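Researcher: Go.
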Amino acid sequence: MRDAAQAGRLHHAWLITGAEGVGKASLAFRFARWLLAGATSADLAVDPANPVARRVAAGTHADLLTIERRYDEKKKRMQGEIVIDTVLESGALLRRTAGEGGWRIVVLDGAEYMNRNAANALLKLLEEPPHKSLWLIASHAPGRLLPTIRSRCRRINLGPLPDQTVDDLLGIYAPETSEADRRRIAEIAEGSIGRALALAGEGGVAMAGLVDLALDIGTPLPAAKAQAMADQVAGIENGFAQFFSLLRSALSTRTRQDARHNKAGLTPRVTLWQELGRIAAETEGLNLDPRTAILVALNLIRNP
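Model: Structure:
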């Protein structure tokens, strides 16, 4: 991206992919800030005291627009999708002359949440890009995007961060976390610093212990112990989502490890992973009882 910009060959749309929390939006904003500030440094760095950096950080730069899911004040939660009106806001920015005489940039964070109408509106905008306009599109599920959107973008895939890097970053951003807990969180964060920070702040190490206990596949779990586990998970703020996320991640990791060693009987594991995803989605989407869902999941795992 840097080389293309400095050579005057910057493509008008970039699709930045990778796991949640790995830094896709951070890269998009870092590049946008660098480009708006004059694109001079070799490492995309911009002095925080630079007026452009301050305006980007405050969300007040006239030539930068962010598109993402909005917070629904009535329902007191994030919208489930990005709607067409939100995407069309970019049209006004891209049609006008740049306020500071340079680029006009749109950062689309969470592109996989666009509904059909929003996706079609984005496609039209990508087909007719104005001069010196730039789209930076971040998505952890690019397969959900229209093929025609993907085909109009240059793609950069961000891989998982090394465990040691996650550990080091936790030491900086969550210094109260013990060394042992940092190592454990780095192991289960799957290379995502965003996920690691969430786990550090939400009792992720303790939850990982419950997941390890739950994944003793094929070993019967006494009803009283299962109920106690369900009560413990459901009693933690955001515990249900965290438990199922860690549960499916751990199951996926074990399945991949077994696949590398050519072990048989992997199909039931894949089916279980899919079923756990369905249970989690239905429970959260339909506002069902999380304790019941946890008990159903434990029964599927321990009594296949």
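Model: Residues 239-260 form the longest helix (22 residues).
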